[in-house]
Structure formats: structure tokens, C-alpha cells
Amino acid sequence: MRTARLLSYSIMLCTILLLPTATFGGPPVTGAELQNIIPKVLRVGFSSRVFSDTDPRDAQAAMELWTEELSRSMGIKALPRPIIFRNTADLIEAVNKGELIIVSLPAIDYLKIRDEARLTPSIVSSSNAGKGREFVLITRRDRGISTVADLRGKTINILPAAKQEVSHLWLDVLLMREGKRDRSSFFRQVKETASASQAIMTVFFKQADAAIVSRGAFETSKALNPQIGNQLSVIAESKSLMGDISCIPNMVNDKLKRSIEYAAEHLHESTIGKQIFTLFQIDRTIPFQPSYLDGISDLLRERDRLLTKLTRKR
């Protein structure tokens, strides 16, 4: 599934770039017109954290294969070149040098670099915003656990920070609300699991006392197995904490930028877009709204406030 996600990102972004026509409130932009403003090399940037559990060599090979095929099939004379950035400094440098057409990275990383990198959030998968991106703290109903305080000395499972850094940020805030900064002094064990379904099932089968997963993953598990909904309950929930985001560098030609945004919004209407959604199980792309970042921004501010408060008490 992770490789499918990788391929779907590659296909989605390059299809957006290479669609032969786009309309944005004015005359249509044709493939020939776009050819005049599209660089000879299409450099599409990805943070390695978007594909945190995929071998970088496999990621690069897969992305190059698909982007080259799409370039050929769409008839655009440009060389697609996907680039995976393993460190933030290199990504910022490439953006500020005008070397990239579009960049995909975790929203929390965008917030960290937005004062340094000249780029603007533009496109997001609908599953990366909204209620599906809320996180929930779940326990078994028969464990007698109804608050975070009740988890003292208990075990909790969570996905690795490389996959869901914001869930770790939320866990730290939950603990700081209880006056605790150190997980090890509060929980008996904090264990990372490979997937949300695994985290949920460890609670269901009483192998862990609690877990943090996205609401989307929890609702899916309940739909597949109604017993999960009967046996597990939510004792805390976060605001919507956005996932990955695609940004367009500020130096990109405005006509091309608007063409990319239009094509992204209507990608699900195209034959190739429908194939993407069917074969790789991704949802439609939607325009970015600033409010999508409110949850993470509020959480970061609360963390900083609580850290300051707890530091003063020491």
C-alpha cells in the first residue's frame, strides 16, 4: 500500500503538470501554450518524509518510470525529474533557487520552513484535511479508563513519528496538560506500531491499554469490524491535524500556477485521474484553505505555552 501511495503521488502531481488543457476563468491554456512556459525539465520535489517507509531507490525508480511515461503519453516535450529531498536544507535551497515546479511535504514541515522557503500551499488530498485527520485516543470500554490521567502506568501504542509526527506532538500536549513532560515517567510503555490497524487491534485484543490513531483509520476499522466499535471507545480527540500538502514555489509563472491548480481540482474528472483513484485508492484533490493548518498551528502554540509553564515550575 505504501508503494501504491508513492506511485499515486507521482502520477497525481505529474498528471496535474502535464494535462494538455486547463481553464481558469479565461481562455483555455492549450498544450502548445503551456509548452512555452513549462521548463524543459520538470523538477517535482518530494520530502522523503512523504515516503518514510519506502526504500529511496525504489521510490526514485518508480517515480521516474511513471513520470516519463506520462510525459510521453501527454505529448509535452519536457523531461520530468522527480527529486526526493532527504533533508530540509536542500529542499529550501532548491525552492529558493527556482528549481522546482511543485513540492510535496508534510504540513508540519511546511510550517517549520515557511519563513525560509518561498512557496505557497496550493493542493491537498481531501483525506489529508477535515475530520479524517483528527486523531483519537482509544481504549477498551471494559478497562475502566476514561481520562488521560487514568493511563498513568499503562501501555500505549502509536505510529512512528516519521509517519505521523503530529500524533506524537498531540500526545506530548496531552501529557503536558497533566503536568508531565516525560512519557517514560507517566506510561509503563510507549510502543510504536507499523500501522493504525495494528495499533487498534492491540487494544482490541488487550495487548495494549490505549492507542493513538487517526479518526479516519478508526472509523474504517469499525466499519469493517463492528465489534471494534462495541468494545473500544474514544477518550480524547484532537482538532484536524493536516497531513501532506503540495506547494507551488512563488517564482513559478502565474499562468502555469493557475493551470496546475485548476487541473488538480478537476483531476478526478479525467480518464487518467479516474484510473489513479481506482487503482491506487486515493481520493480527489482539493484547493488548499488556510484554515486547514489551524489545528497544527494551535497545537504548536499550546505546546510552547505548556513547555514554558512547566519549565517555570521546575
Descriptive overview:
The protein has 314 residues and is an alpha/beta fold. The protein has two domains: 2-129 and 242-294, D-Maltodextrin-Binding Protein, domain 2, CATH 3.40.190.10; 131-240, D-Maltodextrin-Binding Protein, domain 2. It has helices at residues 2-18, 31-37, 56-74, 88-96, 107-113, 165-177, 183-186, 196-204, 215-224, 226-231, 254-265, 271-280, 294-313; strands at residues 41-47, 79-85, 102-106, 119-125, 134-140, 155-158, 189-192, 210-214, 232-240, 244-249, 285-287. The strands form two sheets. Strands 2-1-3-10-4-11 form a six-stranded mixed β-sheet. Strand 1, helix 3 and strand 2 form a beta-alpha-beta unit. It starts with a helix and ends with a helix. Residues 19-28 have low confidence and may be disordered.
Quick structural gist:
This protein has helices spanning 2-18, 31-37, 56-74, 88-96, 107-113, 165-177, 183-186, 196-204, 215-224, 226-231, 254-265, 271-280, 294-313, and strands spanning 41-47, 79-85, 102-106, 119-125, 134-140, 155-158, 189-192, 210-214, 232-240, 244-249, 285-287. With 314 residues, the chain is α/β, with parallel strands linked by helices. Strands 2-1-3-10-4-11 form a 6-stranded mixed beta sheet. Strands 7-6-8-5-9 form a 5-stranded mixed beta sheet, with helices on both faces.
